[in-house]
Design a protein that fits this description.
The structure holds two protein chains of two kinds. Chain A is an alpha/beta fold. Chain A has 21 helices and ten strands. In chain A, the strands form two sheets. In chain A, strands 1, 2, 3, 6, 7, 8, 9 and 10 form an eight-stranded mixed sheet that branches. In chain A, strands 4-5 form a two-stranded antiparallel ribbon. In chain A, α11 crosses α12, α12 crosses α21 and α20 packs antiparallel against α21. Classes of the chains: A alpha/beta, B mainly alpha.
Chain lengths: 430, 291
């Protein structure tokens, strides 16, 4: 008896088997789809298209085109950076890229294929149904470079249970009421949780811009006018500083991020926040939130001292085709399908901010999303926090720096506004 | 021994040279060229000479970031060296459970920087962090790092010391173990106190290792990014911004590749300048050993 284990395979046999196997695989039937469309997007864009065979909104399109979709996802800023990098190369494998509405400057727009010819030869079903403001945001120099796919319009979320605990029967109808309620709701709730009246991220322009618009002011208008009513911005900063001083904004305001807003609201650590309406589902999900069904939303209220119309702050996403991508027909076919009323409605049910007006009229959707009416109302007049221009990101950084200094009490609102004018004006397009 | 001709030697050393050329020299030259141009996405680069350097050096935000970086580097690296040396000597003096403790001291080096910062953010959360609550319960002052820039800088320095202490420690510990025991025995026979033995035996013999550790840490610490970016994002109001964060913002938020490239070269120059004293010391030691 021997303990040796032998392998009866010669070198020739091994090589022959390997080569034969490779040849069989190469010549054999293909199990994967014939085509692959690579997409650069945020994770949320992939998620809202549905997961699993039954919920996949693109199932029919994939079968019809014998194509597979491969998403490469990033957070917003890295995504834009990667998209512009890919589009700057001699050629790219990415057929569709998702772009934020405040990014396409004239130089950036040159990196993407104009979509007007596609719109003429293979139109999108009922294209006019897509909100005109969102379509306009994707038009640069008269050319359509993107098709709107998602909007994130901000609303005021409140924790109904905490309001009741504090003896407040209705959410605020004016900005003054909001300030008063936020201060009243800076207390310890019945379950012993220290509650802060309001939470807002300090690294996003949407909050100071909303406060300024509530007083009839703005940050940068569509025609690049900086602080059209400086006194409104001063009032906005004074109000925010007052909230901070009263403890109605967290001590950690300067390091608060978007995600903190969500967790603080879900845990009952804050009574109010301003965030996109699409977060409704997440706030009220029993698996994530301590207050399922009790976190509701209304439009962000304007000041009682301002008679005009207040525009909510919105940010929208569009789908683009990099100009250096070869199979533009396949990319356009994807965009057409995603933009169709059917897929738009399906994505809205999955938590996407629908870009079509008709989606809000859908009875099932309205019934499933209690904030649909408020969102539709806000969207009707909503516009971005600022228009796209080459130095927009740098200007936003300077703006937020002054806002933070004013809120923390290191600058007076007047000094902050003066500093904004001095530093941001040279960055605006001439 | 037969001397090879250049033609015979070249093929043998070429792979290394090609590697260094392709991954260090060529990209460096490209960054120099980029720093002398104005470029962004969708824009062909245009020559601007030294304008980007002038612009970056004249930017108050850059000067603030440079100052913050120098402060963090100088404080963190030297405190880290002192603690690393103390721990290395403690280990060398003989400790119970030495292997277990060694793993504990080295563990932070195995933790990803991102995970470490997330962990510290949780521990030092101003409202609900366990460390903050414990400090408050003991009646001790808390680190109000999300509001006070100085406190934020202290927390960043503490975090970077905790993360990189194993590097300094392991270099010093290895060097300490290499010192022959006879020298301490001779010092003891000559009547040296432990402090004298440390000053006259340990410190001079650890000198080269200390300089190497300091030099590496100075250069690495100058590139500090994750700790600041993930903990404070450079805030409140850019008061804790460091040069690497400034560079990141220029390159990836503002897509201003010229100023970003100029910042990178200024970073290289500043870190070498800061470490110049130690470079000279190392050179003198190397020259001294050669004789």
């Amino acid at each position: 008896m021997t303990n040796r284990i032998t392998l009866d395979m010669t070198r020739r046999g091994f090589l022959g088997t390997a080569l034969g196997g490779a040849a069989a695989l190469a010549a054999g039937p293909s199990w994967a789809a014939a085509k692959t469309l690579n997409i650069l997007s945020h994770k949320v864009h992939e998620t809202v298209l549905g997961t699993g065979t039954d919920n996949d909104l693109m199932k029919d399109w994939k079968a019809k085109n014998d194509a597979n979709l491969v998403f490469t996802t990033f957070d917003s800023n890295p995504l834009q950076d990667r998209l512009f990098r890919e589009a700057s190369l001699p050629s790219t494998d990415y057929g569709v890229g998702y772009i934020i509405d405040n990014r396409p400057t004239a130089d950036i727009a040159k990196l993407f294929a104009p979509l007007d010819d596609f719109l003429a030869s293979a139109p999108i079903e009922n294209y006019d149904d897509i909100a005109p403001g969102l379509r306009e945001a994707m038009t640069v120099g008269g050319k359509t470079i993107g098709i709107p796919v998602r909007h994130a319009t901000g609303g005021l979320f409140y924790n109904e249970q905490l309001l009741e605990e504090a003896g407040i029967s209705a959410p605020p109808a004016t900005l003054e009421e909001l300030i008063e309620q936020a201060k009243k709701l800076t207390f310890t709730s019945k379950d012993g949780t220290p509650v802060t009246g309001m939470i807002m991220a300090s690294d996003l322009a949407v909050f100071p811009v909303s406060f300024a618009r509530a007083y009839g002011g703005d940050y940068i208008t569509k025609d690049f006018k900086l602080l059209p009513k400086p006194e409104a911005m001063e009032k906005a900063l004074a109000t925010m500083a007052d909230l901070f001083k009263a403890g109605a904004l967290p001590r950690s305001y300067a390091t608060t991020k978007n995600d903190d807003q969500v967790t603080w609201m879900q845990q009952g650590r804050a009574a109010f926040t301003m965030i996109t309406f699409a977060r409704f589902k997440q706030f009220n999900d029993p698996a994530q939130s301590k207050f399922p069904g009790r976190i509701k939303a209304v439009q962000f209220p304007k000041s009682s001292s301002y008679d005009g119309e207040m525009a909510a702050v919105t940010e929208s996403w569009g789908m683009t085709i990099p100009a250096n991508f070869a199979d533009k027909d396949l990319a356009w076919s994807y965009i057409r399908e995603v933009s169709s009323p059917r897929v738009t409605l399906g994505m809205a049910r999955n938590g996407n901010g629908p870009v079509r007006v008709s989606t809000y009229a859908d009875a099932d959707f309205a019934a499933a999303s209690p904030v649909a009416a408020a969102e539709a109302k806000a969207l009707a007049t909503a516009r971005g926090a600022f228009p796209p221009f080459p130095e927009a990101a740098r200007a936003q950084q300077l703006f937020l720096e002054d806002v933070q200094l004013a809120v923390l009490g290191r600058k007076t609102p007047a000094e902050a506004v003066e500093s904004m004018v001095t530093r941001i004006t040279p960055l605006l397009p001439s | 021994m037969r001397t090879r001709s250049l033609a015979q030697s070249l093929p043998l050393i070429a792979p290394v040279h090609i590697l260094i050329l392709s991954v260090i020299v060529v990209p460096s030259i490209f960054v120099i060229w980029l720093s002398l141009t104005k470029s962004s996405f969708g824009q062909a680069p245009t020559w601007v000479g030294l304008e980007n350097y002038v612009r970056v050096l004249g930017d108050p935000a850059f000067r603030g970031a440079l100052w913050n970086t120098v402060v963090i580097v100088v404080f963190a690296v030297h405190i880290e060296l002192a603690v690393g040396l103390a721990v290395a000597l403690l280990f060398a003096s003989g400790l119970p459970l030495r292997r277990f403790l060694l793993v504990a001291v080295l563990a932070p080096y195995a933790v990803s920087e991102v995970i470490a910062v997330v962990m510290w953010r949780f521990l030092f959360d101003p409202d609900a962090g366990p460390v903050m609550l414990a400090l408050q319960a003991l009646g001790l002052p808390i680190l109000d790092w999300s509001f006070e820039p100085t406190h934020a800088m202290i927390l960043i320095a503490l975090l970077t010391i905790w993360l990189h202490l194993p590097f300094t420690f392991i270099i010093l510990y290895a060097a300490r173990l290499a010192i022959p025991g006879d020298l301490y025995e001779a010092a003891r026979i000559d009547g040296a106190t432990p402090l004298q033995a440390f000053r006259r035996v340990t410190l001079p013999l650890l000198g080269p290792a200390i300089v190497v550790a300091l030099l590496f840490r100075y250069i690495f610490a100058f590139r500090i990014f994750s700790e600041v970016w993930l903990l404070t994002g450079g805030g409140p109001a850019r008061s804790t911004e460091v040069v690497a964060v400034y560079l990141y913002q220029e390159a990836f938020s503002y897509n201003a590749f010229g100023p970003a490239a100029a910042t990178a070269w200024i970073m290289v120059a500043a870190s070498l300048l800061l470490a110049a004293g130690y470079v000279l010391l190392l050179r003198r030691q190397v020259a001294g050993n050669a004789h």
